[in-house]
Amino acid sequence: MQTDGWLDESVRVLQQERSENVSEAGTTPYGTPFGDLLRAAKQETGLSYRKLAELAVDPTTGVRVGYTTLHRIAQDQSIHLEPGVVGAVAAAIQKSEREVRIAAAQQYCGLIADDPFGVSTPEATVVVVHAPGTGRKDMPKVENLLRKWAAGELPRELTEDDQTSS
Questions:
Q1: CA distance 84 to 104
Q2: Is 91:101 a contact under the CB 8 Å cutoff?
Q3: 5 FRET partner, CA 20 to 30 A, in 22, 37, 129, 130?
Q4: Would you say 71 and 38 are in contact if contact means Cβ atoms under 8 Å apart?
Q5: Helix/strand/coil percentages in the chain, nearest 5
């Protein structure tokens, strides 16, 4: 089948774009925290991906993740991230779903989810999702909103106390 070279050129461009976005070590520009968690768990437990997959069942949805998916995550390859996958991985590696979800968001979406203000407490966790390279100084409105919330000064429309039936 003749393609007049356009197909070959398209494949070459896609491969070049991928190689520019993924380093030789297989890492993305946003790091590989999701893969890092899985690799660390495998090393710490000594379990194979097949054995970890036996534990990879999301407690909420019942979604199971197979060993090939776990291997792809550990190799920093893309996966089909559907509801339940993160919970299943968290169960397999015995980490909190919150920690695993934050790592997956960073690795696959390029989003950072953390507490740039350092205001989390054991009673309340503050998580702000933001672009890499941004921090506290870039989010004055968010910081102001958090300060008002902590002081109990939010407008009624932003509090649960204003839930009225119509």
A1: 12
A2: no
A3: 22
A4: no
A5: 50, 5, 45
